[in-house]
Structures are given as structure tokens and as C-alpha cells.
Amino acid sequence: MTLRSTSIAKIRGGSFDALVIGGGINGAVSAAVLAGRGAEVALVDRGDFGGFTSQASSNLVWGGIKYLEGFEFVLVRKLCRSRNRLVQAYPDNVKPISFLATLDDTSPYRPWLAALGSVAYWVIGGFKTHRPRLLSPNKIEEMEPVVNTARARGGVEYYDAYLSDNDSRFVFSFVRSALDAGARAANYVEVVDASHQSGRWLVTLRDTESEGDPFTCSCRVLVNATGPFVSDLNAQLEVRTEHRVVYSKGAHLIVPQITSSDRVLAFYDDTERLFYVIPMGARSAIGTTDTRVDSPFTEVTDEDRDFLLDQINRRLDLSSPLTPSDVIADRSGVRPLVVRSDSPVSKDVDWTKLSRKHEVETDAKRSVITIFGGKLTDCLNVGEEVADAVEALGVPLEPDTQNWYGEPASHTREEFFRQARLMHLDDLRSTEDLEALSERLWRRYGRRAFGMLDEIRKDPSMGEDIIESADYVRVELHLAADTEMVTKLEDFLRRRSKIAQVIPDSDVIGSPGLEEAVRILFGDRADEKLAEYLREREIPMVT
User: How far apart are CA 440 and CA 436, in angstroms?
Assistant: First the structure.
């Protein structure tokens, strides 16, 4: 049996302290903290883990300097503290990074005022980053020749953090943590029905992948972590709340690398909204937009694409302007913004001024906890608040030793790299522009990387790349098949890895190693899964 089928078998008929519905960052971190503190936990998502809002972020872990514009000092302080904790807990995954903000005539602030704000941001963040500094146009051009400084008044450099890998893989690390602590978790499992009887919830679930008969489990507490869909689930559960969510759409374009400096470039667009050029290895991500929408289902439109390309082309000094043909991939999602249920949001409200804070609300009578809003940076705070709420509903938890998040201890890391050096792991590949294999395996897999060393020792071909330019070796495919609940090919290409975001579809589909990769992941169902992926991406099947 696969890990997923084993988990479903244990959820079927199971009795839990908490059932977490929704496997984005809020649900994943809730399952991790509850399981880590001794609760019996199940986690389900009707799609893939990190498969909706959580896969469309900017990959930034930041305190939200732009929230200072709305004088949300408490929110910024809270986010900065969470950012600092994540940087400390995930030194190989959450990296400090420089932001270079160029201020031109579209900026609402003079450079001196922006510098003052960045100093305030540094202070609010507890001095945990490098000191910010005011920059002249000449200094900006010296640091980043790609920036067009013809209209620049000056700029500032300040510091935050970003994810070295992709956002949904970071989400999956919390799912993995929950599983390691004894939780049951399954993707592509939807809630069909739920009823509250004698102080417990009886929940009917269905495996949408196998389309088998519905099955049930019971729990003391339901955690609604469905992101943009929290209100829909609460209506199904007959739960009334003091808050609701409205939607802001964000879009990013992935293009060839604009600058090799590993620095975020920040600009104000013509509507005086911040947007960024964010490093993604050999690629750059341009975004994000901030547009009010009424549906959580979004896509990058031609208008989005043209707007972002126009804005960035006018602020960069490129040998030739970026065009739609340079866009390797795109990403679009909604931010669920929290508002009071009784407060109408007028069309005239400045959308960017709505607060980005989260709310954790409890219906004590029906034992339902709802998470409104939230973001990657704030995930540890969300997890701890959910744990407090679960305890308040009468579920005893063990003391919080903070074992539910973070990378392994430094001595474990040192032992891994010692073993990797002894077996000359990084000599297996000769491509100089790729990240060292030892660093990548440790960052992605932590303790599980020791088993990968053993497999490569036994069979050196396990350290060979499979899909050209994907930077994924054979042993990683086997581990993903065994331990990462890859149910559809997109789960692997888009979420467990970022292959689909940094390599054009034509190169992935044309790779001679794709067939082997799909066979490792899905065995006898490989042809079916590849055909499904091509159909959903509207890519012609090559025979």
C-alpha cells in the first residue's frame, strides 16, 4: 500500500481529537502543532496539499513593510517576530535577502521618507536583519546596472527573507512533520457531510481519486482551514462567524533571470502599488498585482501579463524588452482578506488598505475553529493560536516543546555533510551552475536525506539527473513516490518541486527522462497519469 492509501485506511472509521480540513499553510501548520503536542489528528484536503492559495505566493517571508503605510504597527511587529523565528528555525530554507527599492516619480514617498520607514521597520523587527540604508541613483546603478535610474529620485536597501525552494514544498514540510508525529493525512479527500452529535462530529469523506464509496470518521474538534472557502464550509457546518473573507488577486510572471545578484528589486507601479523582481535560481518572478475579485478561482489574464511586462520594462535597462514569449510560466491566486461579517466592503474602498492580519475564531458550542486569512510568514503564530483554541475546547495537549517545526539540529546537519563529503556526493554531477547536490538534498529532505545517501552508495545511478535541467536526481523521484503522496503528475512538477514553474512545458514534455520519472512515481498507472497531466494543461499528446 502507498502512504496515501495507508493514511486513508486509518482515517476510515477513525476517532480523532481534531480533524483539520484544508491542507494549505494554515491546515498543514495546524496539523503539525496538534500532532506534535500529542493530539490524535487527521488532515484532509479535497485537492493537493498547498494546491490553491499556498502555491501562488511571492515566496517571500517578510514582516510586511508596506503595512506600515496603514499604521498597522502591531501586525508588522507580529509578522517580523514570526519571520525571525522562521529564519532561525529553517536556516537552509528561509534565507535573509536584500530588497533594493528604487523610488521614481510614481512612488508616493520621497527617498528620505522611505529610508525613515525602513529604519522603523528594522527597529520593529528587533534589529534582526542588516541595517537599512538610503541610496542615491548612482549607487543604485552601481549595485544593479539592470535598473533604469533615468527617473529615479533615489532608493533604499532593507532586508527580509525568502524561501529558497517553492512555497507549496514548504507547506508540505509541515504535512510531513504532522505525519512523523503520528497524524493521518490524505490529499484528494473531500468532505461530503458532517453532523454534530453528542459532543462529537461525524464526518463523511470521499476519496476523489479512487471515486470509491464514502467513508466516515469522528472527531471532537473540526478545524476549518480551507482558506478562500472557509465561509462555504461553515455554511455546510451551520456555523456562524463574526468574520468573513474577501478576495484580492495576485499574479506573477516567471521569466529568464533578470539579475544574478540574489537580491529582490522593488518598484512602485503607475498605480503607486509595490511590485517586485524576485530571484528563483536561474529565473526571476515579476509580481505581484493586487486586484479585487469576487471569485477565488483566478488565472493570469492577458491584461495582467501586459501590465506587469509594461511596468517592469519601463523600470529596467534591458538589451531588449521582455515580451509574452519570454514568460516561462505564471502563477495566480487570491489573498483571503479578513473583514467583519457585518461590514460591507464598498467598491470604492482602497483595496490595498484592507488589513492582511488573520483571525482564529471559535464556535465553542459546535467545537469548530475557523482560520481566516493567514500567510506563510505568519504560519507559526496561526499554529500556536489554533493549539490554544483546541485546548480551550477541552482537548488536552502536551506542553509545547516546539518540536513540530524547524530543521534538524546543527550536529545532525554536520553529520550529513560529513557523510556526503566522504562519498564525494557533489562530484557525481559536473554541471557548475547547479546547486551542490548535498546542499539541495539536505534543504529539501532533512533527516530523510540520510536514506538517500544510502541508496546512492548502493547504486550511484540514483544520483543521476532524470529530467534535463530539472535539477532532480533519480533517488528523489523514488522518495517522492514512497513518502510524498504524489497523486497526480502536477503534484510533483508544480508543488513537491518547482519544475513546472521554471522549465517550459515543451522542454519538460520533450525530456527523454520524463517517461522514466512518471514510471517511478506511478508505476503501472504512468501512461494514465501522463495523459491526465497533458489533458489538464491542454498540451497535445505526442505519439
Answer: 6
Cβ atoms 532, 500 nearer than 8 A: no
CA 62, distance to chain mean position in Å, is: 13
- 54 near 77, Cβ under 8 Å? no
What mean pLDDT is predicted for residues 360-364?
Answer: 97
Decide: 37 and 391 in contact? Cβ < 8 Å.
no
- Residue 263's nearest CA partner among 159, 166, 170, 165 is 159
Cell numbers at residue 217, please? 470518521
Digit-coded pLDDT (tens) for 395-436: 999 999 999 999 999 999 999 999 999 999 999 876 666 789
Distance between CA atoms of residues 335 and 82, nearest Å? 19
Q: Is 240 left (phi over 0), alpha (psi -120 to 50) or beta?
A: beta
DSSP classification of residue 525: G
Q: How far is CA 322 from CA 305, 328, 351, in A?
A: 11, 11, 28
* Cα atoms in the 13 Å half-sphere on the side-chain side of 183: 33
Nearest Cα residue to 219 out of 172, 243, 184, 171: 184
Dihedral over alpha carbons 392, 398, 402, 408 (to 10 degrees): -150
CA distances (Å), 490 to each of 1, 246, 419, in order? 21, 28, 33
The answer for residues whose C-beta is within 8 angstroms of residue 359's C-beta and 6 or more apart is 243, 338, 371, 372, 373
What are 515's three cell numbers?
517517461
pTM for the predicted model, two decimal places: 0.95
Q: How many CA atoms lie within 13 A of 138 on its CB side?
A: 0
Task: Note the pLDDT tens digit of each residue in 97-140.
Answer: 999 999 998 899 999 999 999 999 999 999 999 999 999 999 99
Nearest to 392 by CA among 415, 369, 425: 369
Task: For the beta carbon of residue 433, count every other beta carbon within 10 angstroms.
Answer: 7
Sign of CA dihedral 251, 255, 258, 264: positive
Whole-angstrom distance, CA of residue 358 vs CA of residue 452:
39
Residue at 298: amino acid letter: T
Separation of alpha carbons 515 and 466, rounded Å: 9
